[in-house]
Design brief:
The complex is a heterodimer.
Chain A: E1 13-21, E2 28-30, E3 39-43, E4 46-47, E5 54-55, E6 61-64, E7 73-81, E8 115-116, E9 125-126, E10 129-135, E11 137-140, E12 143-145, E13 154-160, E14 163-171, E15 176-179, E16 182-186, E17 202-203, E18 206-210, E19 215-219, E20 221-223, E21 229-233, E22 244-252
Chain B: E1 3-15, E2 20-31, E3 34-45, H1 56-65, H2 68-83
Antiparallel strand pairs in B: 1-2, 2-3
Amino acid sequence: MSGYIGTQPVPQATQTRQTFIATAAQTSFATGGYQAGYLDVFLNGVKLQDNVDYTATNGSDIVLTVGAALDDTLELVAYTAFEVLDQTFTGTTTVDVLDVTGAFTSTDLTLSGGVYLGGTGAANKLDDYEEGTFTVTAAPETSGSLPLFSTLNLLSYTKVGRLVTVSGMMYFSTPSSPVGTYVTVSGLPFVTPSGTEAEERADASVTYKDASTAAFSVKGGTLGGASSAFLVYMDASTIAGADQFYISFTYLTDA
Amino acid sequence: MALTERTIIDKYEVVGDFKHIQCRHATVIERDGVEISRSFHRHVIAPSDDVTGEPQEVQALVALMHTPEIIAAYEAHVVASQEV
């Protein structure tokens, strides 16, 4: 900016001006504040040279090298970063880096990545949310079959990060000679990880309703590693038409 | 105003040591060509699963990922898991 008198202002800065009337030999002037390096100082209209005619380093005081004369006029022009207050932006606004120091509110927020909570490591990153449905099938351990009503085999899932919560009810239609000490329920929406020990496994207990007696009982269930099926431990031969499994558990996934 | 509904598989995820294939079916509702709703239904294809009823593109992916070695390793894993 050739020909500009004074500190070249940074784009989108704001100015604060202060004027002082000096006493005889006054050297120090207490200002309302400035950012070191972002100010112009004038004495009787003549611009002073930073670090030669004055020093201004502490953010509040201007100290003249030579004391002013009585009734000299010292003028300060301080530049501060441009701030926007109570503004509304319409349309698409692109921001390279947004550092929010106060509260942040939004109607909808869309992230193509994730959000770090409580740290910046991979273990702090929440990067996925999804909800939907999945269809299950059931099979006895050894032989026979355990078909489900086609309109009562849909369960729901909610995935938050690596946690998957499934819930719903499955309704047996016409079991055919089921035999076995457990029932395999297949069709989970996400596969479990392959753990190094057994940390990926989960409890998958279900509430079993015996339709003939309307009695409910809890049957232990397990979900192993690298699997999208869980096992419910009960005598499969006792399952009859109209019996039900009520399901609600949470497990881990890698995806 | 025309409402249309279509179902697509909008995401495949190949995960884990045994290349499980997670398929996400999206049911998309559109009004005059503009999407107004999308809901999801999922299923997982494990090695050795029967995929004859799956779309051709899924079968092609299975053929690529579920090699005989992967299937054998997965079947061994299933047996080992049941023994623990």
